[in-house]
Amino acid sequence: MTIDLTPYLPAQGPKYLAIARALSEAVRQGELTPGTRLPTHRQLAESLGVSVQTVSRAYAQAEKMGLVQARVGSGTWINTLDDARESEYLRGGEPRPEAPLIDLSIAHPVCLPTHHLRFREALADLAEQASPAVIDACRPIAGLPYQRECANGWLQDTLGVPGDVENRILVNGAAHGLMVAIATVVQHGDVVLTEALTDHGLIALSRTLGFQLRGVTIDAEGIVPEALDAACRRFQPRAVCLTPTHLNPTGATMSQARRDAVAEVIARHGVWLIEDDVQALLEPPGLTPLTARLPRQSFHVTSLTKITVPGLRAGYLSVPHSQLHHTLPRLRATSWMATPLIFELANIWLNDGTVIAMASEQRGLLAERQRLAAHCLQGHDLSARETGLHVWLSLPSAWRAEELQQQAEREGLSITTAQPFMVDQSPPPRRVRLSLGAETDMARLKCGLETLARLLNEAPPPMLQIVY
């Protein structure tokens, strides 16, 4: 096919990057639509007056950005709504046992040897205390009654989530809970609103379940109420899916006043709220969930993975009573029931206060790491919560996010760009997300942050600046 990228080509910068960004802008403007086959490398090179090598690099860059997909024997295509944008983020690099990357790329709580000790002690307790119902369980789809009772007390007393044991459902982690909640009230083709930058898992769910995910303007406190009101009037959404505490990737956290304003908009438009509250306990006590303001039209999802250990996939879904008869069949269809053995371990930690203690310890560990990051990256523009998992770092003008990511990897450091979190196909912000929990060794973490600081203070290497 013939396409004209000339109107979208930026005036400056490497030609291959200019072409990749022109493709992005053409998609955003609707000039190129998902499923469009692009010209061959030679055809586009001739039309733009550049080398075939430059077009090859441009297509490769566009593929890394999630814009296109190269199919062997078929050509290069504008991506349809598949999982291409998240594939680069989720796919790990080649194993490097001799020099593993310093990992600042994955949302991972700090997990120290003391956590492993607690886990082994809990397993010993479990061997003595576990109910036979754990291995006999077959039909309690929503979860074993006594495990739901335990969850209900914790959700009410610690998180302030309204409800009773009847509307507490046990799920295999927060991602599973979100899928079940959305599937309960959202049909194929429905519009769901969320933050303009949001967790990549929700973006993947939109493709899996076939709903239209629309991003809404955010600021330092998350979604902007006026923008949410305008989007509700424009799109007539079926649901709004929000993360009010420590939004991934920016760390934005709503104040109580912002929560009141957002809840008022949702109530006025009568749409369903699905609240992802998985990082609630990384914030000191004092904030109440959005669900507490809208108990009859809200689903609340949380889990223990971000405050205890990441492998404890104990998730909790609170469902409006009016929707229970719709939710339980979705739970049965996706997993039959959550794994009872996981919740037996969770019960031990919930009942003896370990979860609260570990959440407090996690906040302290993350606060120490945030102070280290602020010191190593002083002079640079960054946003972070005092006890947050992430740093949202703005880049100097010389650097593009994807270029910095590539150069950092060459120097043994893994970071994440904004691309996997973009709801719409628009140019991502020139920022990167740094996650501070995966590296247990503070010396390695400091080394990684210092490496990044050095790169930020330098110009990109000539190999990234060359113009063909």
TrEMBL record:
**What SUPFAM superfamilies does its record include?**
PLP-dependent transferases (SSF53383), Winged helix' DNA-binding domain (SSF46785)
Q: Which residues form the HTH gntR-type domain?
A: 13-81
What keywords were assigned to this record?
Aminotransferase, DNA-binding, Pyridoxal phosphate, Transcription, Transcription regulation, Transferase
Name the Pfam families for this protein: Aminotran_1_2, GntR
One GO MF annotation is: DNA-binding transcription factor activity
- Is the keyword RNA-binding assigned to this protein? no
Protein family according to the UniProt entry: In the C-terminal section; belongs to the class-I pyridoxal-phosphate-dependent aminotransferase family.
Q: What is this protein called?
A: DNA-binding transcriptional regulator, MocR family, contains an aminotransferase domain
Origin species: Modicisalibacter xianhensis
